[in-house]
């Protein structure tokens, strides 16, 4: 049985996310190459109050009419020593100051960024901030257009599996296209394109997401942004009913810092390891298959300073080898840990640099509480 390796708060092993399928961070659609799948996505947030939860749901027609003016096409040009490359992605209006949210991979490395609004008006934009760890970016148009209609932010923690959602963007450069579907699951973990870390708490949807949708909003039926479309899971690179969006609550933490400082400082722990599956639980003679075993501890990390222990031996059971001797994390701040995503989601939702966190660990059959102080994640 293949096992995934992860780094908590950070480093993801080579087999961490890619198992039988490939997660494709839908890159912005490259000009002249419509066969490439690129979907930049981030969740949108606005400075205004969220819509009342008591408001009745909109029809898809009403939802589109309400939201279409807020979704923009983003065209980028990149000039390298070898070739001139460009792409088209999506974004949405965040506030009345001209800030627009999109994916980091849509605008990363752009020499020129142009935003096109619903009426066809075009404006130059500058990159205000990027966070590659969550694939979120903020750009700002150089002038203040009439068509600044910020989308309102929803609470992604209230989503339920089966809830209807809609995505609006520019798939293959086709402006103002909407697709609809449902929330397939929450709390997924996907890899980032250029870092050794992963994005936690991701929304899975079957709403069609294609190249050029990257950075566009995923909306609930009240017209609130609950995610930013960012990736698909596919064997071929084409949409097969599994898309991913970074949740709006993640954006509500990240975007203000990007606007203020141009970056967001993520906390980290500094360990690698693997989930306790039934095979490993049996090899370790554990009563339940849950928790996260530490394989290695990064030197100088919060985990290292707190005294967490990594694997010390390898067990051989039949023709299989299993790691053993490492601390097994079974709780974080008194919340149960069944797998790595529980730790990463808690970090993303609840913690910031400078906070403390209490891990409940099993070490040599003894239960311990270990407190560590979170520091800024390194750029690995």
Automatic annotation (TrEMBL):
Keywords attached to this entry: Hydrolase, Membrane, Oxidoreductase, Protease, Transmembrane, Transmembrane helix
GO terms, molecular function: 2-alkenal reductase [NAD(P)H] activity; serine-type endopeptidase activity
Group of enzyme by EC: oxidoreductase
Pfam family, one: PDZ_2
Record-listed E.C. numbers: 1.3.1.74
SUPFAM superfamilies assigned to the protein according to its UniProt record, in alphabetical order: PDZ domain-like, Trypsin-like serine proteases
Residue intervals of the PDZ domain: 269-374
Transmembrane regions listed in the UniProt entry: 6-26
A Gene Ontology biological process term: proteolysis
PANTHER family: PEPTIDASE S12, PROTEASE DO-LIKE 8, CHLOROPLASTIC
Protein name according to UniProt: 2-alkenal reductase
